[in-house]
C-alpha cells in the first residue's frame, strides 16, 4: 500500500512538472496580459515578466512606448526605482482640448530584485490614439539581470508569422471601438498614483493640530478597479522653533504606506522612497502634492472611490502620532 501511494505521488508530481513546463514554454516571452486594446481608449497595459535571464534575477525593466500610445503613466512598484523618459511625439494629440506634442516615450523600473523563481507584472496606463484598427503596436522591452541583458524587441514583417521569432517584442493589437463603447479617460486612474502632470486640488479636509504642527488639506485620488497602488497628499505647517520630522505613515486601507519624492531633471522623471522620512523646518510649511512629495499606498485592499475617506496615522519625531482622514477626490482632481 505504501509503495502504491508513493508511486502515485511521484506520478502526480511528474504530471504537474510536465504541465508547468508546457505552460512556461507557452508563455516564455514577455507579453501583455490583455493583448488587445480598443481605438481611442485609455487602458492599463500590463506586461507579464515570466522569468529572469538564464536563471539570474531581473534588476531592471525598460519599455519603449510606440507612437500612438500616449499620455503614459507607469504604476510604481514597491522596492523599485522609477524613471520616465520624456520626448517628442511624431504627431500632435488632443488631451481634453489641449494639444500635446510631448510625453513619456520610455519607462524604466530600476534597481529591483525579481528572482527567476517568481513572476511579476509591470503596468503602464496610457491612451491608444490615432491608430487604425488591425494595427499591432510593438513595445520593445529590455530585461536586465545585472550584467546580463535580454532584448525583447523583434518584430515580424507585415504578413509574416511572429511565432518563429526568438525574442519578440510584446504586441498590443488595436481593434475597432464598439458603437456604444466609451473612453475611460473619465476614470483614468493615477499616474504614479496620481502624482505627475496634475495640479493639486483644494479639498475641504479637516485641520489637525499636534504639538507645534498643523496638518491640513488631506486628500487622495480615486483609483481604477483592481489597481493596487494609491497616492495621498496633505500640508504640514510647523509653528514651532525647532525642526520636526515625519518618520512613517500607516493606514488600515493598505498593506504598506511609503513616503516618496518625485524629481524631474533633463526630461527624466525619477521617483524614490524617502526611508528616513521628511523634515519640516521651524516656521516652514511642507506640502505633499501631485508631482512632488507624496504618500504611496502599496497593496491597497479596496480601490479608493470618490467621496470616501482614507484613514492614515502619521508619526512625527517630536509631535508623535496624528490621525488624519484623506478625502478621496476624482481621479482628474476636479
From TrEMBL:
Alphabetically ordered keywords of this record: Signal
Domain of life according to the entry: Bacteria
Pfam families: DUF1775 (PF07987), PCuAC (PF04314)
Keyword Signal: yes
Domain YncI copper-binding: 29-174
CDD domains for this protein: YcnI_like
UniProt KW Signal keyword: yes
Gene3D superfamilies associated with the record: PCu(A)C copper chaperone, Uncharacterised protein YcnI-like PF07987, DUF1775
Signal peptide positions on this chain: 1-28
Matches recorded under InterPro entries: LpqE-like, Lxx211020-like, PCuAC_sf, UCP037139, YcnI-copper_dom, YcnI-like_sf
Record-given protein name: DUF1775 domain-containing protein
Amino acid at each position: 500500500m505504501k509503495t502504491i501511494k508513493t508511486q502515485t505521488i511521484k506520478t502526480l508530481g511528474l504530471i504537474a512538472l510536465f504541465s508547468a513546463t508546457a505552460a512556461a514554454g507557452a508563455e516564455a516571452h514577455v507579453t501583455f496580459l490583455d493583448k488587445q486594446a480598443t481605438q481611442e481608449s485609455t487602458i492599463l497595459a500590463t506586461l507579464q515578466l515570466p522569468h529572469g535571464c538564464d536563471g539570474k534575477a531581473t534588476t531592471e525593466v525598460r519599455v519603449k512606448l510606440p507612437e500612438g500610445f500616449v499620455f503614459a503613466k507607469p504604476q510604481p512598484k514597491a522596492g523599485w526605482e522609477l524613471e520616465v523618459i520624456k520626448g517628442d511625439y511624431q504627431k500632435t494629440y488632443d488631451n481634453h482640448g489641449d494639444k500635446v506634442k510631448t510625453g513619456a516615450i520610455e519607462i524604466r523600473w530600476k534597481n529591483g530584485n525579481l528572482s527567476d523563481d517568481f513572476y511579476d507584472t509591470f503596468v503602464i496606463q496610457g491612451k491608444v490614439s490615432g491608430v487604425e484598427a488591425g494595427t499591432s503596436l510593438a513595445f520593445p522591452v529590455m530585461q536586465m539581470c545585472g550584467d546580463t541583458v535580454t532584448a525583447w524587441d523583434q518584430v515580424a514583417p507585415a504578413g509574416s508569422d511572429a511565432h518563429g521569432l526568438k525574442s519578440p517584442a510584446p504586441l498590443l493589437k488595436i481593434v475597432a471601438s464598439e458603437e456604444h463603447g466609451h473612453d475611460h479617460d473619465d476614470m483614468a486612474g493615477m499616474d504614479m498614483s496620481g502624482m505627475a502632470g496634475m495640479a493639486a486640488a483644494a479639498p475641504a479636509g479637516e485641520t489637525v493640530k499636534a504639538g507645534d504642527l498643523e496638518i491640513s488639506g488631506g486628500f487622495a485620488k480615486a483609483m481604477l478597479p483592481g489597481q493596487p497602488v494609491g497616492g495621498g497628499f496633505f500640508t504640514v505647517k510647523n509653528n514651532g522653533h525647532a525642526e520636526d520630522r515625519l518618520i512613517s505613515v500607516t493606514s488600515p486601507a493598505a498593506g504598506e504606506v511609503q513616503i516618496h519624492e518625485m524629481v524631474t531633471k533633463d526630461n527624466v522623471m525619477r521617483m524614490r522612497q524617502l526611508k528616513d522620512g521628511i523634515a519640516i523646518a521651524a516656521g516652514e510649511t511642507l506640502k505633499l502634492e501631485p508631482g512632488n512629495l507624496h504618500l504611496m499606498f502599496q497593496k491597497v485592499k479596496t480601490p479608493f472611490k470618490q467621496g470616501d475617506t482614507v484613514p492614515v496615522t502619521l508619526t512625527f519625531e517630536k509631535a508623535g502620532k496624528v490621525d488624519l482622514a484623506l478625502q478621496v477626490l476624482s481621479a482628474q482632481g476636479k
